[in-house]
Amino acid sequence: MPSLDDLLAAAVDGVGGTTRPGQVEMAHAVQQAISSGEHLLVQAGTGTGKSLAYLVPAVQHAMRAGRPAVVATATIALQGQIVDRDMPRLADALEGELGRRPTYALVKGRRNYVCRHKLDGGFPDDDGGLLDVGEVDAAAGRLGQEVVRLREWAEQTESGDRDELVPGVSERAWRQVSVSAEECLGGRCPEFSECFVEQSRAAAREVDVVVTNHSFMAIDAFEGRFLLPPHDVLIVDEAHELVDRVTSTITDDLTAGALRAAGRRAGKLVESTDELDDLADHLEALLAEAPEGRLRGGLPDALALALTRLRDITRGLLTELTPEKGGGTDGVDGGRQVATAAVEDLFDVAGRILEERELDVVWLAGDARRGPVLRVAPMSVAMLVRDRIFEDDSTDEAGNRTDRSVILTSATLELGGSFDSVARTLGLSGEGAPPWRGLDVGSPFAYPEQGIAYVAEHLPAPGRDGLATQTLDEIEALVRAAGGRTLGLFSSMRAAREATEAMRERLGEEIEVLCQGEDQITTLVRAFARDPTTCLFGTLTLWQGVDVPGSSCQLVLIDRIPFPRPDDPLSSARTEEIGRRGGNGFMSVSATHAALRLAQGAGRLIRRGDDKGVVAFLDNRMITARYAGFLQRSLPPFWPTTDRELVLRALRRLDETAEPPLPVADPARRGLTGAVVSGKAAAGTDADGAEHPLPARGAGPSATKGE
Questions:
Q1: Is the peptide bond before 460 cis (omega within 30 degrees of 0)?
Q2: What residue spans of 290-381 are helical by DSSP H?
Q3: Which residues contact residue 369 at a Cβ distance below 8 angstroms, ignoring those fewer than 6 apart?
């Protein structure tokens, strides 16, 4: 087996990149962690080429051990980059060194794939069933047209992966051709041998590198479904997002609509669901009368009684839905499976809320579409992550215990100059914490020469009544000076839409403004990257994972410090608990949250060695607040200023001298393993700023949802 240095050199040469000291240091640290079984937290700034720094030692280990390494990411952009760009080129580059071509696979949740059995009518649908092509004419509605597209595409696709379908379809249409893990018939399905999901997972068991997402990895670790193949190396990229993704995965909610939907599904198979329907009305009235926010001091009596009744009713329905042995239909009854999954979910959620676990937070939230929603989530997942991810006690096929090395990496793991904040949330501090090492390999970019951090100190403090007129004036001036080329990162969709509407009115046809929610994120980002006179405004999804190197993004706007809302149930619960223990809840929770988001958002600006531009903070607290220093230390070291005219001149100069936008490729067609099935490579850059080719049909997106 060639040495790591030889393999890394071959990989860098193969992708047309250059050797970076930080990349070499990180690759050796990853190799050391794998060989010693230790855990590693490594901060690798943009431009390091961290993907290669962990993929090369991961491939080396996988080929030695005969067991795959698993890479989990948070965003669709990075999954697409690894599967469509990094691994194809890496595999080509290392084939000669290793004697065979390294293999890889993309593994995602069941909802991301077409279900052949559902396409064939094997499951009932609340929208009235799937539409045959002959039933849809030119006058048919959007849903029918989308389903026809899905049927035609399903006959051609090799992967069945939703993200291969461009343009995409609505969630309502996709639900008509997909099933959840709970609804799936598994081995009893008549289409089991042809199932896209099963074929992709079978293929993944034979590869060197498995790429998945945080949510899917969490389900595999926490629920013991063994969805991923046995592995002793887990690499978590975008690790700053892991806690939020894990929390989201194990958050449950309950609505009156869910009761009614379960009742409809079960009502086709049992004598009566009147009790469940009546309870839905009662629960809806209870929740409508209750104030939004955390339920403190235990469940109200009326709500506890309603949940107890729900648990009893659903227990009875589950008994009725259990098919009699030898009944002849229990093997392939999709309708029964869907109904059982819906009722079982209600039973589980009601039981969890009634249990009132020590770390669970229960709250009531309003939803414009679903009405009042009762939610329950853990205040902390630190111990869960420690027990199920860092102290994994999995076994190999022979039943032997396997120690797993976990490598967590991100451009933003050190907040305020320390790994401590992130380590606490991951269960890596306190008594009994597993040993780990922290490493910062820096970034090759010259941030003070490439970027300006501008704080608009003259603007009024952000308020609750929307964007101030002065703030909109500032946005307009900055965007005009930049000639477009603007990524607008807002703390809420309300603010993003308000800014979008205002700028469209003010800028007219001169500069186009796109807004998150108007199309798929990947489609919007491609449009933004292709046209320098375009702006893209949005919220959380755009704060990370958006990789637009070159002249199309020379201004990043951040409307306000992204603190969690004061009434956010989980943040407030965490803050109170830390304060109760004598700590500083604001700095540990709110300031840490804001620092992480700011670092990620500001990191969208400089994506490669010749990028230049401005990050504009429209919140003067970035320099006036007592916590400003902590936030500033978490950012890339841009050149700081509050001089508005200097910034406007710099943006105009950049606009006047800008090179044409870099080429933007379309999504790739995937095979069963998620790998690109056609196309030659063309030059491009990855999200770390490392220059290397793109498949001819581009970097296709990948879903971020779990099983």
A1: no
A2: 301-321, 334-355
A3: none
pTM for the model: 0.81
Instruction: Give the rounded distance of the alpha carbon of 185 from its chain centre.
Output: 27
Question: Helix or strand or coil: residue 691?
Answer: strand
Amino acid at site 61: H
Q: From residue 636, give the alpha-carbon distance in Å to each of 190, 398, 404, 464, 604.
A: 55, 48, 32, 29, 11
Q: What is the pLDDT of residue 52?
A: 94
* Helix pair 50-65, 4-14: axis angle to 10 deg: 130
pLDDT tens digit sequence for 648-681? 999 999 999 999 999 887 766 666 666 655 443 3
The per-residue pLDDT for range 494-504, each reduced to its tens digit, is 999 999 999 99
Structural domains of the chain ordered from first start: 4-103+207-249+381-440 (3.40.50.300), 114-129+144-188 (no CATH), 256-324+332-369 (no CATH), 447-657 (3.40.50.300)
**What is the C-alpha to C-alpha distance for residues 616 and 556, in angstroms, rounded to an integer?**
6
Distance from C-alpha of 689 to C-alpha of 684, rounded to nearest angstrom:
9
Question: Which residues are 684's β-sheet partners?
Answer: 692
Q: Is 579 left (phi over 0), alpha (psi -120 to 50) or beta?
A: alpha
- Dist CA 461 CA 471 (whole Å): 10
CA-CA distance, 681 to 697, in Å (whole number)? 9
